[in-house]
Amino acid sequence: MATYKSISLVQRPSDKKIGPHLFETKELDIPEVKDGQILIKQTHMSLDPAMLGWMSEDRESYIPPVELGEVMRSSGVGEVVKSKNAKFAEGDKVMGMTGWQEYVLSDGSGFNKLQSGVTEEMALCVFALPGLTATTGLYNFGHPKEGETIVVTGAAGSVGSMVGQLAKADGLRVIGVVGSDEKADWIVNELGFDGAINYKTDDIESKLAELTPDKVDVYFENTGGPIQHHVFNRMNAHGRIVVCGMIADYQADEPSAGPNWIPLIKKRITIRGFAMPDHWGELPQLLEKLTPYVQQGKIKYRAHAIDGLENAEKGLNMLFEGKNTGKMIVKL
Amino acid sequence: MATYKSISLVQRPSDKKIGPHLFETKELDIPEVKDGQILIKQTHMSLDPAMLGWMSEDRESYIPPVELGEVMRSSGVGEVVKSKNAKFAEGDKVMGMTGWQEYVLSDGSGFNKLQSGVTEEMALCVFALPGLTATTGLYNFGHPKEGETIVVTGAAGSVGSMVGQLAKADGLRVIGVVGSDEKADWIVNELGFDGAINYKTDDIESKLAELTPDKVDVYFENTGGPIQHHVFNRMNAHGRIVVCGMIADYQADEPSAGPNWIPLIKKRITIRGFAMPDHWGELPQLLEKLTPYVQQGKIKYRAHAIDGLENAEKGLNMLFEGKNTGKMIVKL
């Protein structure tokens, strides 16, 4: 009988470090498909910074943690290789919460077929968590207006690169903060950002001042770190700060201090934290908003693919080290 | 010819300390009233924490600073003692931006007559800056819901005491943070708050936990200070933080650090800073909201009155030292 690999979470990252000791790989029999079910062979699996939170014992967060012994949570794309469900045909490509496993047995709920013309990578880079998160954060909470200035941290990341391109298409001045010259080059020369700051090598304060002559109206935060205070201090009156990620602090023993709140009053600023699971109910509207930008060729993306389920843990660490160049995907 | 006293700002509080050296008192001739003008004899003048900002050289704030040599800005109530303006009769009691002076010559714009039954103290404590600020902050940004828990800092202050009473009338659990047992007693036993924390003497963390068994949905911030981190850590998912004042930090050389932003994502929290001048256009709606609570006897207030324009500077310092018990008013 044929078998497949499945990776479960068996220990929590108590020191916030991700390593092989947290996981257990099992070799399981490929299950029988019963009436109403489909069997999906996963081909492309998404790796996301949120996974560190999902592994942690934090029942206050926006979704419950993965239980110990459960298959590690992830989204992904796969092919239906066997179907006893009238809604799916063998050969369909579907996207959904697949988990860290080569095969998924499902009743089909939560899985959607890819639209024609949408590749597996485009599905995970644009129409899954990154694109929907960017669309929700920018439009629900950033309220961008033509002619305004937006600063995006983690600007070469899967969400940040989408946010910047959407804002650029809407006529904003778009400045991205990145951690390498290669990423700076990509967002400016490929994606069309108006400027980039390399937080590792630039003099942040003077570079930010130079690139934002009209200061900052929307601040889309994906990273945290020292850049936060500089951007915060440069906000305009009635500015909107959208807090989507704080990857620089997720692994810190002691999270870094935030800015004092006096400027929030003086400048009447709104800070809004959000997480995508609150917004799945808005999926049709979000896709309606996002799709035209993609169809008009205004959204570029790049995947950083690694091979093999056994390398998922290494890929996740690359995300936290900022070593990925594009949306992290595991090809199976 | 009769004269009157007028106090001008002549120096900025560069060290954020308020003292007599910042002001100059002039003895001026009571001016002649021309067509269209009214002469107001100020009887009750308001002192507010915002004044420190108005004195400072900060052109980024929500209203421009008082220029050096200008009469110090304030709101107040007075009696029209001479009128050549058809809209006002001699004897009318009016409220508006009076400034630190005994008499005000005006074309009447920006001055409103007190409604019948409204005393001078009620006008300044309820229907002026404190009440309107409380109403705006609580309803525009706090979105209180029956059964939720709200924590108000500066709870015995002019704004905080109003916020707490409005929220209590709306069926919330209301906890106030104050700086003395006398204030704690007043908000609980006179105003009907569900509990009080004396931040100077209580063990804040355990007292807060005890008083907020269902944690905190709305946090109305008037003070800043160490209490901020405790309340922030106790917010529920989808909590709203309304930042109205940071009086503990206004005079600090180095404003204290704010909380890290990770919980904003996990709990999808909104932080909103605001200042009343943005909302004068909503005055009719705000009064429509606020007035029924007052008419139904749900709003108590207390004024802390001091006598004589020459004591205004001392009164202002009492505010920053937390020594006032009630809305600071100068009686002239």
TrEMBL record, chains A, B:
Residues 19-330 form the Enoyl reductase (ER) domain. SMART domains: PKS_ER. The keyword Oxidoreductase applies. Keywords: Oxidoreductase. The keyword Transcription regulation does not apply. One of its GO terms (molecular function) is oxidoreductase activity, acting on the CH-CH group of donors, NAD or NADP as acceptor. Pfam families: ADH_N_2 (PF16884), ADH_zinc_N (PF00107). PANTHER family: PROSTAGLANDIN REDUCTASE, PROSTAGLANDIN REDUCTASE 1. This is Zinc-binding dehydrogenase. It comes from Alteromonas genovensis.
